[in-house]
């Protein structure tokens, strides 16, 4: 029998994923996956294949998101909705410490909850890249965020390659999909009758050694490659000459196009709240009515929030124009010099969930045409 290792091309029957989920739970993981909730797709705890969105796709366009049920029996045709895995690694609210007054004395305790142990099942290549981007933000040589790091170290990732992109997807332009290249423990490609499996770590190898598998056939491997090629061609959005974008934006900070998009932008913060890489946060101090408990929490914030750039002497970004310019130039320009990667992964969420129907790809392409 062929020895199983990280280079072995293998396939599993789809029902074997139930065994994998069960073994992950036996190892103490909380298994999280895509799940239909409140008429949208959420990242929620799952226990079996039955929890996955089999037969669903999503129709996505500027300012529009709709679930559609099909006759398909595939589990991972649907493109992610507004939620991303960020809510588990960098929660929207984290208690940092709490102080309690007793008999006139204050006692302060840091948050001491057990570090969660997550297994993410069904991570798209673009969202896998987003986790890698946030790693660069929160786990650095000069500073490591202890809350993020603890959650990240305990994480196991099962990626799912994307064969059916939405109209707002442009991961091919950002070189983040449709196929996951690294950063996963296991990577699945869903065909009609099997999952092709790529093993990316020792943890993934150990898991696959405990479930039934077979060598992938040439037919299945060819079908996957054809599917990736078709997915690249079916991307609903595209950014040309990506390598020129960072300098182009910084060289045109006073261009009239910023005013045009600023007049449309509502500064509602939707784009940053759904973005899987945005990391702006604020600290909030909370006190109970009797002034006996004081608590400090870290909460998500946004560079579109006028208060975010307010400081003594005034506001450094007083208009929607200046805030949109900050957001776009950081995502597509200064993020590269700061972290060595783009801050955008081409998922299209900011396009879908913008009530003003502002399209990041259209804005960049407008700049490229205007300054050519």
Question: Your description of this structure?
Answer:
A hairpin with a 3-residue loop joins strand 10 and strand 11 (194-199). This protein is an alpha+beta fold and 372 residues long. Helix content is 31%, strand content 24%. It has 2 domains: 10-90 and 113-233, no CATH class; 242-287 and 300-371, no CATH class. Helix 8 (256-264) packs across helix 10 (320-339).
Mean pLDDT: 95
Strand content: 15-25%
The number of helical runs is 12
Rounded to an integer, what's the Rg over CA atoms?
22 Å
| Number of E strands | 16
Give the termini separation. Answer: 59 Å
Q: Which strand order spans the largest sheet, edge to edge or round the barrel?
A: 3-2-8-9-10-11-1-12
SSE topology string: EHEEEEHEEEHHEEEHEHHHHEEEEHHH
Shape assignment: globular
The major beta sheet can be summarized as:
8 strands, mixed
Structural class: alpha+beta
Number of domains: 2
Oligomer: single chain
Helix content: 25-40%
Give start-end ranges of low-pLDDT stretches: none
């Amino acid at each position: 029998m062929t020895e199983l290792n990280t280079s072995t091309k293998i396939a599993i029957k789809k029902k074997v994923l139930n065994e994998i989920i069960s073994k992950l739970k036996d190892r103490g993981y909380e298994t999280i996956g895509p799940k239909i909730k409140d008429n949208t797709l959420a990242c929620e705890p799952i226990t079996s294949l039955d929890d996955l969105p089999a037969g669903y796709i999503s129709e996505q366009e500027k300012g529009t998101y709709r679930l559609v049920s099909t006759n398909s029996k595939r589990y991972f045709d649907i493109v992610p909705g507004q939620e991303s895995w960020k809510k588990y690694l960098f929660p929207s609210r984290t208690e940092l410490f709490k102080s309690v007054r007793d008999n006139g004395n204050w006692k302060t305790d840091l948050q001491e909850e057990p570090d969660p142990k997550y297994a993410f099942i069904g991570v798209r290549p673009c969202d896998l890249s987003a986790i890698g981007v946030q790693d660069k933000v929160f786990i650095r040589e000069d500073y490591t965020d202890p809350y993020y790091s603890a959650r990240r170290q305990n994480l196991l990732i099962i990626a799912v390659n994307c064969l059916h992109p939405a109209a707002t997807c442009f991961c091919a332009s950002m070189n983040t999909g449709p196929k996951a290249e690294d950063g996963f423990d296991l990577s699945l490609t869903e065909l009609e009758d099997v999952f092709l499996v790529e093993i990316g770590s020792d943890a993934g190898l150990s898991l696959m050694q405990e479930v039934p598998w077979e060598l992938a056939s040439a037919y299945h491997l060819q079908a996957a490659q054809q599917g990736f090629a078709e997915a690249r061609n079916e991307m609903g959005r595209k950014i040309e000459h990506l390598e020129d974008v960072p300098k182009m934006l910084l060289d045109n900070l006073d261009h009239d196009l910023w005013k045009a998009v600023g007049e449309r932008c509502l500064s509602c913060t939707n784009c940053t709240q759904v973005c899987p890489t945005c990391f702006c946060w604020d600290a909030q101090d909370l006190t109970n009515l009797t002034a006996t408990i004081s608590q400090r929490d870290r909460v998500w914030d946004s560079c579109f929030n006028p208060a975010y750039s307010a400081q003594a002497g005034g506001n450094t970004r007083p208009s929607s124009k200046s805030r949109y310019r900050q957001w776009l130039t950081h995502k597509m320009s200064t993020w590269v010099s700061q972290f060595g990667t783009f801050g955008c992964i081409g998922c299209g969420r900011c396009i879908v969930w913008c009530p003003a129907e502002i399209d990041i790809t259209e804005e960049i392409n407008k700049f490229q045409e205007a300054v050519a």
